[in-house]
Amino acid sequence: MKQLLNKTKGDHVIWAVVLILSFISLLAVYSSTGxxxxxxxxxxxxxxLKQVMVLGLGLIIIYLVHRVNYTKFAKVAVILYLCSLxxxxxxxxxxxxxxxxxxxxxxxxxxxTFQTSDLAxxxxxxxxxxxxxxxxxxxxxxxxxxxxxxxxxIFTCALIAPANLSTALMLGTTCGILFFIGRIPVKHIMLxxxxxxxxxxxxxxxxxxxxxxxxxxxxxxxxxxxxxxxKDGKKESTYQVEQAKIAIANGGLTGKxxxxxxxxxxxxxxxxxxxxxxxxxxYGLVGGAVIIALYLLFLWRSILIFRRCPYAFGAFLxxxxxxxxxFQAMLNMAVNVHLVPVTGITLPMISMGGSSIWFTSIAxxxxxxxSRYVDEMEGKRKLDLEGNADExxxxxxxxxxxxxxxxxxx
Length: 410
Fold this sequence. Notes:
Helices cover 72% and strands 4% of the residues. With 410 residues, the chain is mainly alpha-helical. The strands form two sheets. A three-stranded antiparallel sheet has the order 1-2-3. Strands 4-5 form a two-stranded antiparallel ribbon.
């Protein structure tokens, strides 16, 4: 165990945040899956044990990935990105359909499904970090600097959007933030925003005319967010939003206590999309604020890694992956408190899942790999400075001895 701890490098605060989020996940999943276990005729601890194994494998993935020098991911990024595009296309045309959206691929041998957009997000940010670092000398130029990073993002988002528009919009927004950090001119980023708005409009119109896509679902969700008008003039919300609001109201400031949620029996998907509402019901606004603080702490530590990293690829890699993870968390929590329309986005490292947690673990492992490299570089630099200082002190001592010998002769 001691040897394992000695080999565990990287930012210790990020490690602590990941472990705390994993522990919270176990508590929340166990509390919110009671009704699901009853409906599926499973033991009450079945989904808890499953989550333990998923998170345990996730922590192993983080450890193994963080031991790899992050510079090796520059070569993997190209291959991974090129593989993600046909996978997204295959998912769009032949993927497993759930909630009217084709987002998953089922692996035939192990009978395991995974969401290809999770792989695409990871591949895209690794690829963009590589291209941004290479294009820094010409990053202000539209053709040489901006277009080489714009087109990969457009291709990925275009293939994700028909089945999962919320993920595509989230990905486009986080890419825009990364572009701003990567010194791309604001006017070019505004051009990206215009392209995104036009793309959504064209996709919505095409879906309404042809029936391909989920235009009806998107329109319904926006209407539900705004609120339908009844005959008496009052607004009505969707069932899941109402149940989430009841859960938050029941939680109050300090919550009803672990395992005492009642809305878990009424709220759809209380273990994934709406797990944050269950956390607030059981742990109150204090517990909800702690979750927000943990994600913001993760982002802050990643920004520190970005500022300390001497090479552009590692800096963009750390900040890009951390921003998309935290932005996804904030978007999920915003849905739970009815600040944005309902989406199918989960809460990273907390919601019950399988492949989504593992892809998130890979991203966290890469961030820690960059941190580990930065720490080693700073350690070597400190040793070199101390060595030079010792050598300088020794030379000064020799000089003083020589002067003392010369003084009597003078």
